[in-house]
């Protein structure tokens, strides 16, 4: 009974990808497109942080913590090669770049600041801006100075002030050129890997401490946000936090234990931090392991935006074994990335919905995959971008998307084995080469975006050409109408605003100007001939109507998912001169004036 109820109230969302055309999407023209990296993963020579120590330590069996004994070393040498890397971004066509600032470079010893290192980041930001790319800075991306780690890092709440002070220094130096700031990258990952699974530093497996560290990091976010926002002139800067979401779904949808552990994991990993940020109260609770009440009345209102990092989901199998109460399993039907994550774009859509409950703008601060063969990268990109577009269509306030990652880099415990880059990096020569599989990302970034009214075209451009079929059966190319003023009126029989506007168009455009070189054509969105003929009869208009199967003509002018009731006025040379949306009196009159002025 319980399982049946759970199964019904939490349907497993999986789309029929064979029936979906993933290229049939547009993003708003204001949408931010970027790539993301993190200091320790790309810069090289970060020898003064917690990861440097970790990369040189061994576990109790004497085995290196990092896959194949890798160390981050010179990484992608981004510290020196950033000008070249900015050119790579320009080649992609992106207009934003998310990177992190390495605390251990700025404050190598407690209270001692390296202003030369700080000015290096300023140089990077200036170079980005000169290339038309907006810098987005993260203040903590898994790494911090050794001295901070030795003090107990975020295990102790009295250490929070050190992070706030570092953040304040950096912010004051760069706030005039960095408009978007992330305090922490993925506190839940930092805590899960460093204090639960023990595969990131400090390598502990202590659920109680995990709860404390999460609470301290969230409080550190709150204090940092409040501090930075108290600096005069910071009103315009957007400050937020980056949350990773992995859904924990039951491996066996008929098994109560799988449901139970999925719920516990979703609660500690995602629901608890989100609830804390929204209300200031929540609890980090795992039965029999940890029950940490978190409360901070200052927390609500500390997000100008939320960053979402999304990769995939986990399938949870509960067990009757106190030593290992759950495990993660895989399903045969899933397409897997090299990280062992299933391709699950539907989960991206779900995560966007979940995070939208915070009711603040969303940036997708990371999304991507490890795929050494480059075989599934295109499919991944197409599906995940489609999923994000679906969320956007449901009016979820997504402002931008950052692909992880610009180039191959040091993938933490996995070392250099995981190839996340749009660009492949040769570790010997440091040469960067664009992967073929990155093309769908480039195509989408460079695709014309829809404006806030859903238009893909602008006034002043040549109208795209197409052939249409009138209800009379006559076929005509738009370009054959050169020499006349053409009004394309996008309409449909079910559209009440269109019905209201059409009699006016009949009188004010067709009857008034049909003998003076003006043609108006109603282009009916994806309806059969009989419906269109009946529609015309009901309205009583006499200007020609044309059919538009699959809204393909509409789709040349506006995002297919946007509404009808729009007029496109095209002058005698084929240039678009006026665009209307809905039937607004003022705009309608302006359109009539425009038409008159052309005659
Ligand atoms: C992290 C990145 C990491 C990526 C891929 C994210 O959780 O923020 O640093 O490289 O996942 O695993």
Describe, in plain words, how this protein is organized in 3D.
An eight-stranded parallel beta barrel has the order 1-2-3-4-5-8-10-11, surrounded by six helices. Strands 15-14-18-17-16-19-20 form a seven-stranded mixed beta sheet, covered by helices on one side. Strands 6-7 form a two-stranded antiparallel ribbon. α8 (160-174) runs parallel beside α10 and α12 (345-355) packs parallel to α13. The mean pLDDT is 97. β14 (467-470) and β15 form a beta hairpin. It is elongated and about 90 Å long. It starts with a helix and ends with a helix. It contains 18 helices and 20 strands. With 599 residues, it is an alpha/beta fold. Bound molecules: beta-D-glucopyranose. Beta-D-glucopyranose binds next to loops.
Main features:
599 residues; eight-stranded parallel β-barrel; seven-stranded mixed beta sheet; 18 helices; 20 strands
Short recap of the structure:
35% of the residues lie in helices and 20% in strands.
Uncertain spans, ≥5 residues at pLDDT below 50?
Answer: none
The helix content is 25-40%
Q: What's the Cα radius of gyration?
A: 28 Å
* Percentage beta strand: 15-25%
Largest sheet: 8 strands, parallel, barrel
Shape: elongated
Total number of strands:
20
**Bound ligands, named by name, code or SMILES:** beta-D-glucopyranose
Average of pLDDT:
97
Strand order of the largest sheet: 1-2-3-4-5-8-10-11
Structural class: alpha/beta
- Summed up, the helix count is 18
Span from first to last CA?
73 Å
């Amino acid at each position: 009974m319980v399982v049946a109820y759970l199964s019904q109230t939490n349907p497993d969302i999986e789309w029929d990808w064979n029936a979906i055309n993933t290229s049939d999407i547009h993003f708003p023209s204001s949408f931010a497109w970027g790539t993301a990296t993190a200091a320790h993963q790309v810069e090289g020579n970060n020898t003064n942080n917690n990861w440097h120590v970790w990369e040189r330590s061994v576990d109790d069996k004497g085995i290196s913590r990092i896959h194949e004994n890798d160390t981050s070393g010179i990484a992608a040498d981004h510290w020196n090669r950033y000008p070249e890397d900015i050119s790579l971004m320009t080649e992609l066509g992106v207009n934003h770049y998310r990177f992190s600032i390495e605390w251990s470079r700025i404050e190598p010893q407690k209270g001692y600041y390296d202003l030369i290192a700080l000015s290096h980041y300023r140089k990077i930001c200036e170079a980005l801006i000169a290339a038309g790319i907006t810098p987005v800075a993260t203040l903590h991306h898994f790494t911090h100075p050794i001295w901070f780690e030795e003090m107990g890092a975020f295990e102790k709440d009295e250490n929070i002030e050190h992070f706030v002070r570092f953040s304040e220094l950096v912010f004051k130096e760069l706030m005039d050129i960095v408009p978007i700031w992330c305090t922490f990258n993925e506190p839940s990952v930092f805590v899960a890997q460093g204090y639960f699974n023990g595969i990131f530093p400090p390598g502990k497996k202590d659920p109680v401490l995990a709860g404390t560290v999460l609470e301290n990091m969230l409080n550190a976010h709150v204090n940092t946000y409040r501090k930075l926002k108290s600096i005069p002139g910071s009103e315009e800067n957007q400050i937020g936090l980056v949350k990773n979401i992995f859904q924990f779904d039951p491996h066996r949808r008929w098994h109560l234990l799988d449901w139970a552990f999925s719920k516990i994991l979703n609660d500690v990993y995602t629901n608890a931090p989100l609830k804390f940020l929204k209300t200031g109260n929540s609890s980090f609770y795992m039965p029999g392991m940890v029950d940490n009440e978190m409360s901070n009345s200052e927390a609500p209102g500390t997000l100008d935006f939320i960053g979402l990092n999304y990769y995939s989901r986990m399938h949870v199998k509960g067990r009757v074994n106190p030593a290992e109460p759950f495990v993660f399993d895989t399903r045969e039907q899933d397409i897997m990335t090299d990280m062992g994550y299933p391709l699950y774009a539907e989960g991206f859509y779900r995560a966007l919905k979940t995070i939208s409950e915070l009711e603040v703008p969303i940036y997708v601060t990371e999304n991507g995959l490890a795929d050494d063969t480059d075989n599934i990268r295109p499919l991944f990109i197409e599906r995940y971008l489609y999923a994000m577009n679906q969320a956007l269509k449901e009016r979820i306030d997504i402002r931008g998307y950052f692909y992880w990652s610009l180039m191959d880099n040091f993938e933490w415990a996995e070392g250099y084995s995981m190839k996340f880059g749009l660009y492949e990096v040769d570790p010997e020569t440091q040469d960067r080469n664009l992967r073929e599989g990155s093309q769908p990302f480039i195509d989408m970034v460079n695709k014309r975006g829809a404006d806030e009214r859903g238009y893909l075209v602008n006034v002043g451009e040549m109208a795209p050409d197409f052939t249409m079929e009138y209800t009379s059966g006559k076929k005509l190319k738009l370009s054959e109408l050169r020499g006349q003023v053409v009004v394309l009126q996008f309409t449909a029989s079910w559209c009440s605003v269109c019905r209201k506007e059409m009699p006016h168009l009949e009188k004010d455009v067709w009857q008034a100007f049909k003998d003076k070189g003006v043609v108006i054509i109603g282009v009916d969105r994806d309806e059969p001939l009989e419906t269109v003929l009946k529609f015309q009869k009901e309205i009583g208009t006499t200007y020609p109507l044309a059919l538009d199967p699959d809204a393909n003509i509409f789709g040349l002018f506006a995002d297919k998912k946007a509404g009808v009731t729009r007029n496109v006025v095209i002058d005698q040379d084929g240039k678009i001169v006026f665009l209307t949306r809905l039937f607004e009196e003022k705009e309608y009159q302006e359109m009539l004036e425009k038409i008159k002025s052309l005659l």
